[in-house]
Design brief:
single chain, elongated
Length: about 350
Amino acid sequence: MSLLFRYIFLRHARLLLLIMCLGLGLYLLTEIVERVDTFIDNGAGFDLVLKYFGCRIPGIVAQILPAVFLLATVVTLCLMGHSRELTALHAGGISFARVAFILVICGLFWGGIQFSCSQFIGVQGDRYASQIWVEQVRKRELGQKTIHDVWFNEGGWTVSVDSLRQNGKGSGFTAYHVEAGRTTEVDVIIRAPRVKGGTEGWTAFDAVRVKPETFEQETLERVDIPVHQDPRLFFTTSSVNLQQLPIWQLGEAIRHLGDAGSNVEGLRTVWHGKIAYAASLMVMALLGAAIVSWNANIYIAVAVSMGGTFVLYALTMFGESLGMMGTLPPMVAAWGPDTLLLAVALMRLYFVSVRR
């Protein structure tokens, strides 16, 4: 590890931690203002408030780290330029490209921190914070959450449920069975107002069984359907739970839901997005170098970097929306923002190197 690398890394890290504390304080202050009325109305104690926001910190760090890293990069380079350190390095045969490369290594390190916060510590923290908010502050059970219009295929059965809870209880149940070897003809239809599902099988109550060939109907108190889909898997498709799932569990959910016939393009977009967001810190290193190479005035550079951060977040949200709708392939939707900003940064840095 060279002396130059240690110098730039430590100087950059000090600025990053300082900006991180400021950004974290502003973020927490905004959340406290938004939620303080709810805490007071529900009689939450000060220790519960501290516990809730303490659990939220790792997730917030993972969310704002790309923006903080870009600001730290720009400020570091501007200060080095102002003190003529960049000029001295250039005179000593050390190019600006080498400084940018060191910052990319810094981005790799902090990208690992971001990934750890978002997929390990942050996942557990956000999950515990959600539990505190729902069960202790809002005083509602997490198991009462309901999703609508659930569909899946398994073992020749196509199942539809109008509304479903995490405990497996649902309403508006319909199941169609296609006989093996006959891909288009339905031989049994089962409808029921109530259903209870689980990995050991699904049971319809007060059901009506219809045979399409003869239109014969039979009313049954209960019918056991030989499907074993876990109802909890369907709750991983909601936006909140997707953010809480670690990447390996999300991959497992994608596989199970894909095998069940569910549309998993949105889930694949989120899976790629988790990696792309951590990788964006290396892109931010090059983007920060490109900004300072264009204008080393710290006020202008910081303003432009904030605009770059806004562009990254806007493109990430836009790409994720297009990926969720199936308009773009998951990899394009997730990696598109990083690729676009990387291309802009590399073009600028190449122009600077050629001019010099």
